[in-house]
């Protein structure tokens, strides 16, 4: 009996083995190392001194850092909500198109995703800068008197985040909405429900797993991303991603950078935990 | 018909350049079990969907209780549908699925509780109210779908191949249950199926459709015994069909010349010289070793096919066609390769007008 079980394990081990080794080497160990470093102290020359300290975590709670964390969470949350509000109707419309049209539309959504994001962001800077074509047009036509400051503002950062993240919202939403059996919508109408009621009680609950996947896929990267905030924010506007990058780079405070990374990991894990618990939501109580 | 509950007048449905339902006229009486029967693609489901309000008729008028339905939303009609794949809401319990229509109509909660439980009792699903659809068997899902529609007390229940996904034994059992339920509740059922046996078992009347055309509308026995078109004769049960021309007419007995030979059939409004079809059921055919008067239909015995309740004998006839006749027991005096003469009582064969 025991022998047989061991035998059955072999093929599974052979298949999962290489990737497990890979994951342990390149994900688990670095993550454990990050956690380890986060409890060390910073040396005078920006090196890591291997002496236990909770200093970095205390620093996070310092109002200056804490504000940035809150601001980042807020930006990520707004990005996520707007991506959902824009992405759900878009995914819904695409899912109700004939298969070949839908495939073309999905490709259109993917195209910006395939272009280098640094190049795209740089072109944005050129377009939106004070002497750029958009401002020239606005001033030239007399719509505004003075050029508008678009770049290096929170607003442009947000638009950049949304543009970057929208495909991550649309794709999981599309795949769940597309799988939704159209006869369920007809059944709901047949039983007397209006289009709005059908959406609230049938479409939305059944596509909820897609919504939650979209939340996770948008929220987590937009919390940690630093290219968009770095470039469109001009380094003036700091988000948690920029701070982490700076701690490991210019400022050379690895323990603090590590502690901030740990914070991101904890938030991520929390979200995934909620996802596994609540991704299947129940219908309301009727009686 | 006085006060039909549903009437279709010249109803047509076009999808692009495709006319899938053609000039359909149909009246359905209150409390009737009417079946739309036909092969896939004949327009039966489209007809049902137009009555349900999911599709709009391209031409013609559909009335429910004398009122045009075009102006009403699906939920304003006293009509509910049982879908082919059940279409149960996967995230709701059995109870909530059945209660759905009532909660939408804001029926008071105690009444919902009472009506849902009563309905679950009726379809023998007591104790299942807390289950989710994916915890049910096909037959149980089917019952939930029926309960979910009936709990709204519709005047008309539309059923789109509701038993299609069930295995043969369960399907037979559900056929009888559905028919009993319909009789008990007195609700009009409009039932779509491609299974002719199912249609014959359950229906008060059958509307046979083919290529978007209503071929024949009649009680099951008439459909079976007196098919009016060549398609109906071939589609319902088994028939041997011959194309021929009337050569003689005596007291409604027509003598018909076909490529296979000469035969007789009863038919009133046919002229000598008219082209027509003759259909004969395998069970009404006889064979003789010597020619029979009025018939000249020789054939060679090809083989015997044992089918449990009957034995079918396949014959090759003159025009290369293969025809079959059936007996309860195998004929002992003929063997494979024998030459026999086929005949029948002219009133047992059906004379069918050649379609335009």
Automatic annotation (TrEMBL), chain B:
Mind telling me which Pfam families this protein's record contains? ABC_tran (PF00005), TOBE_2 (PF08402)
Q: Which GO terms describe its cellular component?
A: ATP-binding cassette (ABC) transporter complex
Q: What sequence ranges are listed for the domain ABC transporter?
A: 6-236
If you read the UniProt record, what top EC class would you report for this enzyme, in one word? translocase
Fetch the PROSITE patterns from UniProt: ABC_TRANSPORTER_1, ABC_TRANSPORTER_2
Q: Which reaction does it catalyse?
A: ATP + H2O + polyamine-[polyamine-binding protein]Side 1 = ADP + phosphate + polyamineSide 2 + [polyamine-binding protein]Side 1
Domain of life of the source: Bacteria
Known EC number: 7.6.2.11
For this protein, the record's InterPro entries field holds: AAA+_ATPase, ABC_SmlMolc_Importer, ABC_transporter-like_ATP-bd, ABC_transporter-like_CS, Mo/tungstate-bd_C_term_dom, P-loop_NTPase, PotA-like, PotA_ATP-bd
Alphabetically list the UniProt keywords: ATP-binding, Cell membrane, Hydrolase, Membrane, Nucleotide-binding, Translocase, Transport
Gene3D superfamilies with a match to the protein in the record: 2.40.50.100, P-loop containing nucleotide triphosphate hydrolases
**MF terms (GO), sorted A to Z:** ABC-type putrescine transporter activity; ATP binding; ATP hydrolysis activity
- Write out the function statement from the record: Part of the ABC transporter complex PotABCD involved in spermidine/putrescine import. Responsible for energy coupling to the transport system.
Self-association and partners: The complex is composed of two ATP-binding proteins (PotA), two transmembrane proteins (PotB and PotC) and a solute-binding protein (PotD).
Q: Which family does it belong to?
A: Belongs to the ABC transporter superfamily. Spermidine/putrescine importer (TC 3.A.1.11.1) family.
Which NCBIfam families does the protein's record reference? potA
Q: What is this protein called?
A: Spermidine/putrescine import ATP-binding protein PotA
This protein's species is: Coprococcus catus GD/7
Q: What is the lineage of its organism?
A: Bacteria, Bacillati, Bacillota, Clostridia, Lachnospirales
């Amino acid at each position: 009996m025991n022998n047989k079980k061991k035998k059955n394990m072999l093929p599974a081990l052979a298949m999962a083995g290489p990737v497990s080794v890979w994951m342990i080497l390149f994900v688990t160990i670095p993550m454990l190392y990050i956690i380890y470093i986060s409890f060390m102290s910073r040396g005078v020359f920006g090196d890591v001194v291997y002496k236990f300290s909770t200093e970095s975590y205390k620093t996070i709670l310092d109002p200056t850092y804490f504000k940035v964390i809150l601001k980042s969470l807020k930006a990520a949350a707004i990005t996520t909500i707007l991506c959902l509000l824009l992405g759900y109707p878009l995914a819904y419309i695409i899912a109700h198109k004939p298969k070949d049209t839908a495939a073309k539309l999905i490709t259109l959504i993917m195209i910006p995703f395939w272009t280098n994001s640094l190049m795209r962001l740089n072109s944005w800077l050129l377009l939106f800068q004070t002497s750029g074509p958009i401002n020239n047009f606005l001033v030239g036509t007399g719509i505004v008197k003075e050029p508008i400051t678009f770049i290096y503002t929170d607003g442009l950062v947000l638009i950049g985040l949304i543009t970057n993240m929208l495909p991550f919202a649309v794709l999981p939403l599309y795949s769940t909405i597309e799988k939704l059996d159209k006869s369920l919508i007809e059944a709901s109408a047949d039983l007397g429900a209006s289009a709005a009621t059908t959406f609230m009680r049938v479409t939305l609950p059944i596509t909820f797993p897609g919504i939650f996947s979209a939340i996770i896929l948008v929220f987590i990267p937009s919390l940690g991303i630093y290219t968009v905030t770095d470039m469109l924010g001009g380094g003036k506007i700091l988000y948690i991603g920029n701070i982490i990058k700076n701690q490991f780079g210019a400022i050379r405070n690895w323990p603090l950078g590590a502690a901030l990374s740990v914070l991101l990991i904890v938030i991520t894990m929390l979200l995934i935990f909620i996802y596994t618990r609540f991704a299947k939501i129940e219908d309301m109580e009727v009686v | 018909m006085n006060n039909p509950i549903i009437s279709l007048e010249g109803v047509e449905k076009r999808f692009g350049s495709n006319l899938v339902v053609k000039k359909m006229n149909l009246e359905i009486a209150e409390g009737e079990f009417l079946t739309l029967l036909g092969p896939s693609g004949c327009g039966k489901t489209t007809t049902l969907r137009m009555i349900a309000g999911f599709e709009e008729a391209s031409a013609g008028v559909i009335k429910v209780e004398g009122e045009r339905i075009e102006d009403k939303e699906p939920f304003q009609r006293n009509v509910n549908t049982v879908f082919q794949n059940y279409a149960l809401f996967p995230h709701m319990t059995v109870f909530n699925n059945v209660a759905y229509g009532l909660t939408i109509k804001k029926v008071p909660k105690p009444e919902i509780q009472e009506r849902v439980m009563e309905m679950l009792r009726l379809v023998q699903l007591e104790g299942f109210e807390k289950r989710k659809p994916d915890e049910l068997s096909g037959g149980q899902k089917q019952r939930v779908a029926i309960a979910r529609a009936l709990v709204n007390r519709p005047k008309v229940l539309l059923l789109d191949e509701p038993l299609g996904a069930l295995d043969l034994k369960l399907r037979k059992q559900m056929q009888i249950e559905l028919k009993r339920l319909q009789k008990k509740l007195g609700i009009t059922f409009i039932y779509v199926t491609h299974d002719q046996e199912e249609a014959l078992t359950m229906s008060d009347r059958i509307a046979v459709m083919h290529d978007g055309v209503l071929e024949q509308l009649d009680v099951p026995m008439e459909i079976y015994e007196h098919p009016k078109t060549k398609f109906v004769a071939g589609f319902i049960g088994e028939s041997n069909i011959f194309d021929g021309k009337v050569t003689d007419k005596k007291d409604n007995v027509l003598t018909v010349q076909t490529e296979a030979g000469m035969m007789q059939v009863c038919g009133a409004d046919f002229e000598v010289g008219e082209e027509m079809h003759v259909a004969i059921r395998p069970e009404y055919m006889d064979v003789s070793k010597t020619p029979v008067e009025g018939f000249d239909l020789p054939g060679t015995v090809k083989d015997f096919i044992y089918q449990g309740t009957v034995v079918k004998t396949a014959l090759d006839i003159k025009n290369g066609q293969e025809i079959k006749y059936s007996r309860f027991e195998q004929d002992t005096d003929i063997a494979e390769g024998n030459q026999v003469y086929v005949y029948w009582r002219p009133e047992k064969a059906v004379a069918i007008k050649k379609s335009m």
